[in-house]
Every structure is written in C-alpha cells, then in structure tokens.
Amino acid sequence: MIRYGQQDIVQDDIDAVIRVLKSVNLTQGPNIPQFEQAVQAHAGARHAVAVNSATSALHIACLALDLGPGDWLWTTPNTFVASANCALYCGAQVDFVDIDSRTYNLCPQALEEKLVQAEKDGRLPKIVVPVHLSGQPCDMAAIHALGQKYGFRIIEDASHAIGGRYKGEPIGNCRYSDITVFSFHPVKIITTAEGGMALTNDDELATRLGLLRSHGITRDPALMTQGMDGPWYYQQVTLGYNYRMTDIQAALGVSQINRMPEYVLRRHEIAARYDRLMADMPLTLPWQHPDSYSAWHLYVIRLRLDRIRATHLEVFEAFRARDIMVNLHYIPVHTQPHYQKMGFRPGDYPQAEQYYRESISIPMHPTLTDAEQDFVIEVLREAVGR
Ligand SMILES: *Cc1c(COP(=O)(O)O)cnc(C)c1O
C-alpha cells in the first residue's frame, strides 16, 4: 500500500522515546522545553508553547487574542475543519474567504473586498486565520497590511508548513502574524504522534498561551494575583485546559526535528520529479509563487476534466483499486453539515468548490521511493487515458 502521507520513524526516535519511558517524568520533563527551543530556533520566533495538538494550539491562540461571543474569525474554506472550529470553541462566529485559483490559499483580493463590505456592515473580523495549504505560504505581506488597515489579528495555521519559507525567511517567525501554529500529526512534516505548537514574538501572548495550556494555573509568583501561602502553593488565575504535550511526545519531536531539513529536501525532490514526469498530462500541477519555498506537505493535482473521459471519482477510485491511498484536501468546510446549520451553502465559495471537484492529493512523503512514484504516475496515466 502506498499512502498519500506517512511518518518516518528511525531507531534514534525509538531510543529517544524509550529513554523517557525509563525516566521519572513521563510528562512535563526536560524534553518539552528542549523541543520548544528546537522549533523556536528553526522558526526564528521568540516563544514557543508545545501542546497536545494543533487544534488545541488554535484554540488557545484564539483565547489568547481574546476571541469571544460577538466576535468573528475568518478563514479559508479550503482547510481542515480545525482552522474554523477554534472560533466556535470560543463562542465566536466563523466566516470564510474564497481561495486564490493558483495557490489554493486564502485570496488577499477576496479578503479585501469582503473587508470593505464588512466595515460598512459593522462586522469586521477580530482574527483572520490564513492556512498555508500543502506547505506553500499565503501572501502574508498583503494579509498583514490588511490587518493593519482593518484592525484584525492574524493566526497562521502552518500545520502543513514547518520547514518552509516565505520571502526567504522561515515560516513560524511570526513577522506577519501574532501567532503561528504547527501540527505534529503523523502525516505532517515531523511528528510527535499527536502534538502541536504555538509560536509568537509577543511576551504577553506567550505567557497567556502557557497558562491556557495548563488549567490557567501558575507557580510563578510574578503571575499570581494574590500573595503566596507557601512552597506548595499554585494559583489558578484564569480558566485553562489540559492541553499539555507529554515528555514522551516531546522526545520524539526533538529526535524528529533533527531530520526536518532532510525531509523537506526530499519532498522537494519528489515534487520536482512529479512536475517533470507529469508535465504532458491533462492536469494542473501545483503552481508555486516566487515568494514561496514550500514544505511540500501535499502534492495536489487538479484534473483537467474537459480533456479526459474519466470522472474525478473514477480517477480517485482507480488509485484506491491499486492500493494507492490518495486523498482529498479539502472538502470545503462551509459545505460540512455542521456549517450548513449556520446558514452556509454550496455555491458560497465557488473557487474552493471548483478546486474540490477536480483535486487529488497523490502520495508525498520522504520515504516514497522513485519506483513507487513511477507506479503512481503509471496508474494515473491509465486512469486519465494518456
Ligand atoms: C492537521 C491540521 C490541523 C489539526 O492538527 P492536529 O494536530 O491534528 O490537531 C489543523 N489545520 C490544518 C490545516 C491541518 O492540516
């Protein structure tokens, strides 16, 4: 079976995890700060807060930015549901901005048009969540400029994008955002099984993220709002959650991040090889903006349905019939039943919906061999009749 994405676990990873299992701290041990420092150093941000998933990171990022009832969060419909659900967790409302037809990322022109209208209606968003789909960064300079003009905050959902660059700088340095979120789910660039991280350059946001991750509890006298009773004392100063990462997971992360540059290079090789070997086929291959150095989490092809006889579903099933576990990223979030209950309808975001009708994520991960890649292309050629 060839999967669209999968983890690479080597002996060093296994040894790192076993060391923690034999130690005294299974959670909240030394690997947590070590992993945070390693990610922070790669990304070039001042602070990093490790949590148990990117979903949790998105939730506490929204809370740290004071998102609540009466507020709006805008994101792209072409994402995993978590990028939008984080607003609902906070009692806020969600709206979407359609995608750019070339990058498949949130379109800054569509964002600007929607902001102009929202300003008239008095419904400007408090937070915008751009998602770096497949690892290609959004047009962050444009989104940031709109944030300055219309007063919204920015959380980058970089779940696909650790190891990528924007205008030559690492994604995660938060130059154009308040907070950046990474995911370490096994299909992503590096893994901790489940896991995520929130990065920021803002000292106060970092403190809040740290409190929200663990019940709103602090042992730091500087953060306490009343006097300390004794050395046993802790104080809950806000309402937080248990979103902590374990030391077992962090040890895996520390071990994995050593190989991140190698992984991203290999993903670039695979992408370049797909580009070359499929150039003559009736497909739209992933277009890369000149400002982008993608982490290549996904390799998404779009079928030119006007030029082939097979349907989207038939091509998808042709892969699956040969044990090639292709996937589709993403079903537009606004068409999900839970979102339709809020009044969203198919037809609301035509670019994202057109993309959904034509797209397939074909296998892309660092352990994919050239022979496997050739087989994927062969099956695709058969399916599209070229
Ligand atoms: C994977 C993913 C998430 C959620 O990550 P978890 O770590 O599984 O919670 C959020 N947003 C996007 C775009 C993702 O791909």
The share of residues in helices is 25-40%
> Mean pLDDT across all residues, rounded?
97
User: What is the helix tally?
Assistant: 13
Q: Report the C-alpha radius of gyration, rounded.
A: 21 Å
Number of domains: 2
Distance between termini?
24 Å
Report on the structure:
This protein has two domains: 256 residues, Aspartate Aminotransferase, domain 2 (3-Layer(aba) Sandwich); 125 residues, Alpha-Beta Complex (Aspartate Aminotransferase, domain 1). The protein is 38% helix and 15% strand. It is built from 13 helices and 17 strands. The strands form five sheets. It has a seven-stranded mixed sheet with strand order 2-10-9-6-5-3-4, with helices on both faces. A three-stranded antiparallel sheet has the order 8-7-14, with no helix packed on it. Strands 13-15-17 form a three-stranded antiparallel sheet. Helix 1 packs antiparallel against helix 8 and helix 5 runs parallel beside helix 6. It binds pyridoxal-5'-phosphate. Pyridoxal-5'-phosphate binds next to helix 3 and helix 4.
Structure summarized in a few sentences:
This protein has 386 residues and is of the alpha/beta class.
Explain the layout of strands and helices.
Elements: E1 2-3, H1 11-21, H2 31-43, E2 47-51, H3 54-64, E3 72-75, H4 82-89, E4 93-96, H5 108-121, E5 127-129, H6 140-150, E6 153-157, E7 165-166, E8 169-170, E9 179-183, E10 196-200, H7 203-213, E11 217-218, E12 235-236, H8 247-257, H9 260-277, E13 283-284, E14 292-293, E15 299-303, H10 312-321, E16 324-325, H11 337-340, H12 350-358, E17 359-362, H13 370-384
Parallel strand pairs: 1-16, 3-4, 3-5, 5-6, 6-9
Antiparallel strand pairs: 2-10, 7-8, 7-14, 9-10, 11-12, 13-15, 15-17
Helix pairs in contact: 1-8, 2-8, 3-4, 3-7, 5-6, 10-13
